[in-house]
Specification:
It is globular, with a radius of gyration of 13 Å. Helices cover about 0% and strands about 55% of the residues. The protein has strands spanning about 5, 10, 20-25, 35-40, 45-50, 60, 70-75, 80-85, 90-100, 100-105, 110-115. About 30% of the residues are buried. The model has no long low-confidence stretch (mean pLDDT about 95). It contains no helices and eleven strands. With about 120 residues, it is mainly beta. Strand 5 (about 45-50) and strand 6 (about 60) form a beta hairpin.
Length: about 120
């Protein structure tokens, strides 16, 4: 069965960095685009970033452009989200998802809290 397991969340100070990982299994990872989304407390789900199946193209929400970098390692079935220059408004539960635009599987999420 498809599994997506996020890790790497935690507490960071404003201006700090975190790297999230999402380990995938149960499908041919290299054949699918992957995405990251987040949900802040009391708010709806916000798409953050996506990457093509071969990693050749990446795209970002305006709110994170220039600060976050998505990447993937198809040999390790893992997608990453490098988050730099973190802001308190980046505090959210971060999810990875299989697909781009429409998503059929989601991970359980990893919490990111940005606070001094």
């Amino acid at each position: 069965q498809v599994q997506l397991v996020e890790s790497g969340g935690g507490l960071a100070q404003p201006g700090g960095s975190l790297r999230l990982s999402c380990a995938a299994s149960g499908f041919t990872f290299s054949s699918y685009a992957m995405s990251w989304a987040r949900q802040a407390p009391g708010k709806g789900l916000e798409w953050v970033s996506g990457i093509y199946s071969d990693g050749s193209y990446t795209y970002y929400a305006d709110s994170v452009k220039g600060r976050f970098t998505i990447s993937r390692d198809n040999a390790k079935n893992t997608v990453y989200l490098q988050m730099n220059s973190l802001k308190p408004e980046d505090t959210a539960l971060y999810y990875c998802a299989k697909g781009s635009g429409s998503y059929d599987y989601w991970g359980q999420g990893t919490q990111v809290t940005v606070s001094s």
